[in-house]
TrEMBL record:
Residues covered by the FAD-binding FR-type domain: 215-315
Protein name: Ferric reductase
Compartment list: Membrane
UniProt-listed CDD domains: FNR_like_3 (cd06198)
Annotated membrane topology: Multi-pass membrane protein
SUPFAM superfamilies, per the entry: Ferredoxin reductase-like, C-terminal NADP-linked domain, Riboflavin synthase domain-like
Chain ranges passing through the membrane: 12-33, 45-64, 85-106, 126-148, 160-178, 190-213
Pfam family, one: NAD_binding_1
Signal peptide positions on this chain: none
Length: 444
């Protein structure tokens, strides 16, 4: 089989990001060299660390700006992962900046590094701002650790992350006040103003301007709330000019239902039907207070939706045929994808018991109408089939889908199930570029 696209969107986006970061890193190094050496070698090292840290901070802003071009190609999950690791890079670079600067000036003055740092904060403009910025970044880094992240509600975690923007402003003010490459070179000043302006402009565009414009343009409202089972509900949303909304099957929105007691809650839910230009549908299971209260929303309620987001779409299909693997309520984007995806399709839907199979009748009808094959797998991830194989083992997958290595595989479900499927696909030798799984993680 030949691939459907010569240039894969994900590869193009990753290459572009690396090229932009690399080019800026090289330019920052040149600007640093042109500024000349400092009075002490440790001070020079510290300043270089600070410049690289400032560059990475600006890069981080672009990663969380939710720019449509990047999000459609990499997905919020991968962008969040990049944001997380560059965040730790920023933290270590700024720590190195502070330590080397303090030890460098201490070597010149004969005072201890801690005392020298206190003196610099008291006597040098911009240093105190830098220390406060580092403390804020350290706090954000702590709450970003997986252990802390699991214990925090999304709204709390998001609110704490807003302090990053204060840190950015403080760090830039420090750079303006004492940065040698900034102060002494007109070109360097223009470059850093353009870099920070572009990064903050990207955040303003992706996080504020686009959501406000789209919601003003489409005027979304709830048109119907339909219970699918005791724990699952579908919400239908209508609006104006929905044919102009650039949403695709497999994507998700961050929904806010502007009703009393709910307007502050932001919940990411996937589309459970391919957009048809007339309405949008989300289907959610009662897993928390936000999703459980959806069945009480009244038709006519205004909706503020951010998105569409996600790279879990047919844009990334590289083969003529596909395998769709769903688990539990993770079937919602899979069911939507089944409407749009090309070629022959096999669907594997795993649930603990048949009563848990959300949208099964719709899925069956849709599979029948387009000639797809649907397998319902019931039981825990570790359950055995009639032949003694684990449901999602390599043996069972290859038995159900003999040509799996020649298909794109889209996986959406609970983390243990997704991990089991990905392990089996690796053992079967399915190329990474043909495997598409997204956890829909939210960056700050």
């Amino acid at each position: 089989m030949t691939t459907l696209s010569l240039t894969r969107p994900r590869v193009l986006a990753r290459t572009g990001l690396c090229a932009v970061l690399g080019a800026n890193g090289a330019l920052v190094t040149v600007l640093f060299a042109e500024a000349g050496p400092s009075a002490h070698p440790l001070i020079s090292v510290g300043r270089l660390f600070g410049l690289y840290g400032a560059l990475l901070m600006a890069f981080q802003l672009v990663l969380v700006a939710r720019l449509p071009w990047l999000d459609r190609r990499l997905g919020m999950d991968r962008l969040t992962s990049l944001h997380r690791w560059t965040g730790f890079g920023v933290l270590w670079l700024l720590l190195g900046h502070m330590v080397f600067i303090a030890f460098g000036y201490a070597g010149l003055s004969g005072v201890g590094p801690v005392g020298e740092l206190v003196t610099l904060a008291e006597t040098t403009e911009g240093v105190l701002q830098a220390i406060v910025a580092f403390a804020l970044i350290l706090m954000v880094g702590v709450v970003s650790a997986r252990v802390a992240r699991r214990r925090l509600a999304y709204e709390t975690w998001h609110f704490i992350h807003l302090y990053t923007y204060i840190a950015v402003v403080l760090a830039f003010s420090h750079q303006i006040a004492v940065g040698s490459s900034f102060v002494e070179s007109p070109f360097a000043r223009a470059y850093w103003w353009a870099l920070w302006g572009g990064a903050l402009g990207a955040v303003l565009l992706g996080r504020v301007v686009l959501p406000l414009w789209r919601n003003f343009r489409h005027r979304l409202r709830v048109s119907a709330v339909v219970p699918e089972s005791d724990q699952v509900v579908s919400v239908y949303v209508t609006g104006r000019n929905l044919d102009r909304l650039p949403a695709k099957a497999g994507q998700f929105f961050i929904w806010r239902f502007l009703a009393k007691g709910r307007w502050w809650a932001a919940n990411p839910f996937s589309l459970s039907a391919a957009p048809d230009g007339k309405s949008l549908r989300l289907t959610a299971k009662a897993l928390g207070d936000g999703s459980a209260s959806l069945r009480h929303i009244k038709p006519g309620t205004r909706v503020f939706a951010e998105g569409p987001y996600g790279a879990f779409t047919t844009m990334h299909q590289t083969k003529q045929n596909a395998l769709l693997v769903a688990g539990g309520v993770g079937v919602t984007p899979i069911r939507a994808l089944l409407e749009e995806i090309r070629g022959h399709v096999v669907v594997l839907y795993r649930v603990n018991k048949q009563d848990d199979a959300v949208l099964l009748r719709e899925l069956s009808d849709l599979a029948r109408s387009r000639g797809a094959v649907l397998h319902l797998l019931t039981g825990p991830v570790t359950a055995l089939d009639a032949h003694g194989n684990v449901l999602l083992s390599p043996q069972n997958l290859s038995g159900l889908v003999p040509d799996v290595s020649d298909r794109d595989v889209f996986v959406c479900g609970p983390p243990p199930m997704t991990a089991a499927v990905l392990r089996s696909l690796r053992e079967l030798g399915v190329p990474r570029e043909q495997v598409h799984a997204e956890r829909f993680s939210l960056a700050s």
